[in-house]
Amino acid sequence: MAYTIEGARQVLSRTPDALTALIASISDEWLHAREAPDAWSPYEVCGHLLHIEQTDWIDRMRVILTHGDDHAFEPVDRAAGFARFAGWSVTDLTSAFTEVRQANLDELDRLVTTQDLLRRGQHPEFGVVTLSQLLATWVVHDLNHLHQAVKTMAKHYIDAVGPWRAYLPILDLP
């Protein structure tokens, strides 16, 4: 499927509600579950999504629109949200994520046209990328982390499901 702004908005606009429905008002046992000692909990996924929403997608979009590939994007600290939002309630995290996401979608609508999608930027690791690739990555990043939270929660019951594990492939995903 080719990237379109309208198609991307269908996912991007729903992610805050999906995340909120998944993790708001659940017990700490679910919220802080980990599938491995170094894996992220659903709470940490939420903090990461908020941090990246505040510091990545729109900033990089502006770099492409303003500087093209003459100016490399700033590197992103993927774990910075853990410390930045330590102690925040899940309600505060999801509310802030919802607000920032809406502002970012409004900014996307104001600044980007279909003609801009082939404009290029400079990623510090990958080299030249297009605005379309950046924006498509924003969508897949959301889906990746929703999957991560769901998979972590599913694995919390890996032993409890008994023989039904044979029909639950999510439990055996790396």
Uncertain parts: none
Could you estimate the helical fraction of the residues in percent? 55-70%
The run of helices and strands is HHHHHHHEEH
SSE-based structural type: mainly alpha
Mean pLDDT: 97
Query: Can you name the CATH architecture?
Result: Up-down Bundle
CATH topology assignment: Four Helix Bundle (Hemerythrin (Met), subunit A)
Q: Please tell me the total number of domains.
A: 1
Oligomer: single chain
Shape: elongated
Number of strands: 2
The CATH class, by name, is Mainly Alpha
How much of the sequence is in beta strands? under 5%
Summarize the main sheet. 2 strands, antiparallel
Radius of gyration, whole Å: 18 Å
Strand order of the largest sheet: 1-2
Q: Helical segment tally?
A: 8
Cα(first) to Cα(last) distance is 26 Å
Q: Can you tell me the CATH superfamily?
A: dinb family like domain
